Amino acid sequence: MTDAISILLVDDNAEFRQGLRTLLGFYTDGPGTFEVVAEAESVAQAIEMIETYSPMITLLDMELAEGTGVDVLQRLKTLGADTRVLSLSAHREDRWIYEAMQAGAKGYVAKDKLGSQLYDALRAVLKDAVYLDPELASGFFRLFHANPTRPLQAAEAIRLTDRERDVLHWLVQGASNEMIAKQLYITVATVKAHLTAIFEKLKVRSRTQAIVKAIKLGLVQA
Predict the structure, then answer these.
(1) Global confidence as pTM
(2) How far from 42 is each of 45, 60, 69, 76, 104, CA to CA, in Å?
(3) Which of 9, 26, 144, 160 is the most exposed place for a label (fewest CB within 10 A)?
């Protein structure tokens, strides 16, 4: 019997949370069943539930009764909480996607695409990969392409090895550690070691932060 994957639902709409529960109940053929351990509808409640239940995954709406999903993500950074956040939103604007990913979300799914994308997004974040629908990803990167000016001095100060750049390239593509290892013909342990070095050099704490900073500095092409 597979272990249950704990989920926290954060949304200020009770009917939407119930709909998510129902949808998660259909996912029975993956790495494990999904168990909703708690629900929240505000920033304060979300933080309290995360500290109490330590959910493996948090499904986080970007607009809450009091505050935003970005507020939650920023608090989680401060707390060092170990939960993988998947942002859910009715917003498709570039700014919303960028702010969520920059704040540390592992992925972003538009609410009108949940039926077709939520399962794939959950599987991706469970593998510690980043999930972005290609349509939304183009908007996420548009912010960088719209402004070609790069902080070159900052980029030049970050000295990555050729192999670290290879790993960073595949990281930006949304690849998991296993996928990166396969592409570069190295072990998963070696990938993790390179990622640790990359995070230290970029002064970031997560994959999504590394992706955002690498693109912003022009270290890789989106």
Answers:
(1) 0.71
(2) 5, 10, 9, 14, 18
(3) 26
